[in-house]
Design brief:
The protein is of the alpha/beta class and about 325 residues long. It is about 45% helix and about 15% strand. The chain has 14 helices and eight strands.
Length: about 325
C-alpha cells in the first residue's frame, strides 16, 4: 500500500474564520482534490467545543458529509489547556480527564488518531493510554519545530511509550521541522514590516549556511537591526533543517503526518521544505498512512494579498500525488 493523501482543515482556517467556507465546503474541496483523509480541529469546526460537548446533530452531519463525499476521518487535533488556571498548571488528574473527553469526541467522529500537542507531559499521555486503547484510538504526539526526533523531550516520550507497552501511543511528525531554506513568504513579509533588504538577505543566507542563531541575532544588532529585523533573526531559534531520515527509527509509532507548507509555487514546488526527500524516506520506511496538507502561509501574506488556501492546498496535493507515484515505480 502506498502513502495516502489527506488535508487538515486547519489549512482552511482563514476562509473558515471569515465565513467564506463552512465544514461542507472544506470537505467537498478535499474530495475534489482526491485528498480523502480528513483531519479536524474541534474548536474550528464544532461550535462551542470543547467547553461544551458537540451536539449530536453536528456529529451526525459530520458523518453524513463523510458518506456524501467518500472521505475518511483521520485525526482530531486536540488542545490540552493545562495553563487555563492563572498562576498554576492544571493538576495531573484533570489533564488526564481532559484528554479522555477528547478521546470520547474522537470516537464519536470516527477518527482513529488524536494529535497531542508537543508540550504535553509523557506521563499524562501514558496515563490516558488505557482509555485510548479501550476506545480503539491512538494518541500521537506532534513532533514540531523547534523540537525533533533527537531532542531530549521527544526521546523522553519515546522511552515512556516503550516502557508503558501501550500501542495507543505514537508520533505525528510535522514536516516543518525539515525547513531546508528560509521561506520566501516569510522574508517578503518581514521586508514589508520594515526589515532592510540587506539585513533580510543576510538572515536568509545565514539560515542556509546553518549559522548559529545567537550569532545571527547579534550580527543583525551590529548591522543596526531593530524591531522587525530582530524578529526575523529570532525565527532561526525556532526552526532548523533536521534530517528526514531520523523518522525511520520511529516509523513503527508514526501513524499520521502533517504536511506543513508555507507556499507551493506554480511549478508545484515547496521552496523551503524538501518534500522529494521526505516522501522518499517515508516510502523507505514503509509508511502507508496519510500525509495531511497543513497550509500555514496565510498569515504571512494576508497583509498584502487575498489568501487563497484552496489553490495552495490543490498545488500541494498535485505535488504529493506526483512524488508518491514516482516512489511507487
Amino acid at each position: 500500500m502506498s502513502i495516502k493523501r489527506g488535508v487538515s482543515l486547519y489549512s482552511f482556517q482563514h476562509e473558515t474564520f471569515l465565513g467564506k467556507m463552512n465544514l461542507e465546503d472544506c470537505i467537498r474541496t478535499c474530495a475534489e482534490l482526491g485528498a480523502n483523509g480528513i483531519e479536524v480541529i474541534g474548536e474550528q469546526s464544532f461550535w462551542g467545543y470543547p467547553e461544551q460537548p458537540a451536539k449530536e446533530a453536528d456529529i451526525q452531519h459530520w458523518h453524513a458529509l463523510m458518506e456524501k463525499y467518500g472521505t475518511t476521518p483521520v485525526a482530531h487535533d486536540f488542545m490540552l489547556d493545562y495553563k487555563r488556571y492563572k498562576g498554576r498548571l492544571m493538576p495531573f488528574n484533570e489533564q488526564v480527564e481532559s484528554i479522555k473527553r477528547d478521546i470520547d469526541f474522537a470516537k464519536r467522529l470516527g477518527t482513529p488518531f488524536l494529535r497531542a500537542l508537543v508540550s504535553i507531559d509523557p506521563d499524562v499521555l501514558v496515563a490516558a493510554a488505557p482509555y485510548a486503547e479501550e476506545a480503539g484510538v491512538k494518541l500521537l504526539l506532534e513532533v514540531h519545530a523547534p523540537l525533533h526526533f533527537d531532542h531530549p523531550w521527544i526521546l523522553r516520550h519515546a522511552e515512556a511509550y516503550d516502557k508503558s507497552g501501550s500501542d495507543a501511543l505514537g508520533f505525528l511528525p510535522d514536516m516543518g521541522m525539515f525547513l531546508e531554506k528560509f521561506p520566501p513568504v516569510w522574508k517578503a513579509r518581514f521586508i514589508r514590516n520594515g526589515v532592510p533588504q540587506k539585513i533580510a538577505d543576510y538572515i536568509e543566507k545565514a539560515y542556509e549556511d546553518r549559522v548559529l542563531s545567537e550569532y545571527v541575532i547579534q550580527n543583525v544588532r551590529d548591522m543596526g537591526g531593530v524591531g522587525p529585523a530582530l524578529g526575523m533573526a529570532e525565527t532561526l531559534r525556532h526552526n532548523a533543517a533536521y534530517e528526514p531520515k531520523r523518522m525511520l527509527a520511529h516509523m513503527d509509532r508514526i501513524h499520521n503526518i502533517h504536511g506543513k507548507f508555507y507556499q507551493i509555487t506554480e511549478d508545484l514546488v515547496e521552496p523551503s521544505i524538501p518534500y522529494d526527500q521526505i516522501v522518499k524516506v517515508l516510502t523507505e520506511g514503509g509508511y502507508n498512512g496519510y500525509i495531511c496538507s497543513e497550509y500555514e502561509g496565510n498569515r504571512w501574506i494576508e497583509d498584502a494579498e487575498e489568501v487563497d488556501s484552496v489553490t495552495q492546498v490543490s498545488r500541494q496535493q498535485k505535488m504529493l500525488k506526483t512524488l508518491i507515484s514516482q516512489q511507487g515505480k
